[in-house]
């Protein structure tokens, strides 16, 4: 769920020293990675800034634990169900590194010019002295990660003997015969092992020296490389206790274990949706047609629809029909909101609307699109697809009803309801444009009050937003048994 945060990506010009002599003259000093992270974290806390920007719902629980672990200089394990933001949190740690750090030009190990750790690095300084070339590494390049898979080898993580170098005449015991793996190449940075229990136990053993002695062993040759890095791992509790495990000696070497969770508050769930859902992928051209191809502004997702998706996700997590050990990822909700947005854009393209606005009629598409993200408790070897769809559809209706009661409590909708007393009906559907929907109702009593209650600013009200609000009210009246509804999948008819 996640990219390296904006803080890590922001780039200013690199410092000017380009040689070892200039670096010394500038007063630069070597500082270990964990000391660097600790200093930057404390400075950020002292300024009252968020230590891990972009992390939602963990402010009072997970974040303080991570902060304490970093201040203590601990390597750490994040333990939690899928889709709880573990990878996002790990990548956000990059923002706590110095923006630029000096390195020996050509070093495979990102060696600090004032403290080289390899024979190659020491030889460079001995040969060139103050003229040794110095480069600058941005913090976004000081992060490495590996998804633990059964085929991961020691060579991938730590390294292996390079046969080409042996053929060139080097001896097997020569450190420069080695081809370094991902961990040494992330020296002076942060290395993440995702889903650590899935790593074969014999491979986990290879990480023991990295965590404790900070050196590595390859093919029986001990290479003294005092690696300087922060090692962070993630694990799923189900894997952690059943299918796989972290071997006891390795688990003991991690300083801190932090348990993550899904958002506790509904507001955090909604905030996470708005932050993570990619609903701005449509090119903006004001609805004009360029070379016959329609272009639209980014779709508007009314707040009540985002809340329905958030409530739906929480209800699925709590359902007795769903395997609670597997969890329901935040990606379930994010994909749902993106599906709703896509449905609105599709309607705008077909019906000729200038601004896509999502409506209740776009919600049913969420169920088939997201079903693959849910593990059902009683699925067995022969899952009942129809039953699973029924469960999700019921929970979606329940989420819609809850949102209607929360947002429209005390609102006078009698004027809208009276439209149907003479036997009139209102037809909607995923391809029915806003103007056609509103045209069936004529003047809608207290529409401005309904729009205001649903958070539409008075100066920004449009026909599309009015249609979204009215359709939500119609669906709410149906779910509270004040209207009838007939639907065949593509066509929805509301009536008395």
Predict the CATH topology of the largest domain.
Rossmann fold
Low-pLDDT residue spans = 1-5, 282-295
Helix content: 40-55%
Q: What fraction strand?
A: 5-15%
Q: Tell me the overall shape.
A: elongated
Number of helices: 22
> How many domains?
2
Number of strands: 16
Write the CATH architecture name of the largest domain.
Answer: 3-Layer(aba) Sandwich
Instruction: State mean pLDDT (0 to 100 scale).
Output: 85
What is the alpha-carbon Rg in Å? 29 Å
Major sheet: arrangement of strands: 4-7-10-1-11
CATH superfamily of the largest domain: P-loop containing nucleotide triphosphate hydrolases
Query: What does the main sheet amount to?
Result: 5 strands, parallel
Write the topology of this structure.
Layout: H1 6-9, H2 20-25, H3 33-46, H4 62-72, E1 76-79, H5 86-92, E2 100-104, H6 119-128, E3 134-138, E4 143-147, H7 154-157, E5 159-161, H8 163-167, E6 178-180, H9 182-185, E7 189-194, H10 201-205, H11 208-211, E8 216-218, E9 221-223, E10 229-235, H12 237-243, H13 248-253, E11 256-259, H14 266-276, E12 289-290, E13 293-294, H15 303-318, H16 330-351, H17 366-370, H18 385-408, H19 414-418, E14 425-429, H20 434-439, H21 447-453, H22 463-479, E15 484-487, E16 491-495
Parallel strand pairs: 1-10, 1-11, 4-7, 7-10
Antiparallel strand pairs: 2-3, 5-6, 8-9, 12-13, 14-16, 15-16
Helix pairs in contact: 3-4, 14-15, 15-16, 15-18, 18-22
